[in-house]
């Protein structure tokens, strides 16, 4: 009869050959704000209006960590070895929060942080967040819905930025999408205003 240790040791060479998922890419993509919030900056909703920024809705093509490429009007592919560190909608919401805080001075809250009624609420849909192969551009399209508590009317606006991309590969698409996302976030922050 084999001992439990002998069974475990016998299975180790086999375990090294088994893979339960795809090989991860060499690095993961993320977004960084061109206007980061200063470290140590204290904000108070008593001194500045609050704003709730929700993670935007996305179509199925963006509900993945992969970077979509619109190859034609009716076909979609993904950039080889390009993968986001977390869902792009969350990355974009965090980028917008940093940009709105830096440019407007508003206290930006997440859904979990919002207690009572904030001074405003930004929701929307991230409709495009990928590469257009026909124009060789990184494209970010965001349909924003803004509720300003002062008048209780919802405003809607579409934002889009296009940034040229030299090659459609993992090292090139990340910086181009980051630039496009920052351009959209600046426009959203200016729309929200002070």
TrEMBL record:
Pfam families assigned to the protein according to its UniProt record, in alphabetical order: ABC_trans_aux
Domain ABC-type transport auxiliary lipoprotein component stretches: 35-189
Signal peptide as annotated in the record: 1-21
Record keywords, A-Z: Signal
InterPro entries in the record: ABC_trans_aux
Signal is among the record's keywords: yes
Name under which the protein is recorded: Cholesterol transport system auxiliary component
High-level lineage: Bacteria, Pseudomonadati, Pseudomonadota, Alphaproteobacteria, Sphingomonadales
């Amino acid at each position: 009869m084999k001992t439990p240790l002998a069974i475990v040791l016998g299975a180790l060479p086999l375990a090294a050959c088994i893979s339960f998922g795809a090989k991860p890419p060499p690095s993961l993509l993320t977004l960084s704000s061109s206007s980061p919030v200063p470290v140590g900056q204290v904000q108070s909703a008593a001194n500045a209006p609050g704003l709730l920024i929700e993670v935007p809705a996305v179509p199925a093509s963006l509900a993945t960590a992969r970077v979509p490429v619109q190859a034609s009007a009716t076909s979609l592919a993904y950039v080889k070895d390009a993968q986001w560190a977390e869902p792009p909608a969350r990355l974009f919401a965090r980028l917008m929060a940093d940009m709105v805080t830096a440019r407007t001075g508003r206290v930006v809250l997440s859904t979990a942080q919002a207690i009572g009624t904030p001074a405003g609420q930004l929701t929307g849909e991230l409709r495009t967040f990928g590469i257009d192969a026909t124009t060789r551009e990184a494209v970010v399209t965001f349909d924003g819905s803004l509720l300003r508590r002062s008048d209780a009317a919802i405003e809607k606006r579409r934002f889009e930025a296009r940034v040229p991309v030299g090659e459609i590969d993992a090292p090139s698409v990340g910086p181009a999408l980051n630039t496009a996302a920052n351009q959209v976030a600046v426009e959203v922050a200016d729309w929200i205003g002070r």
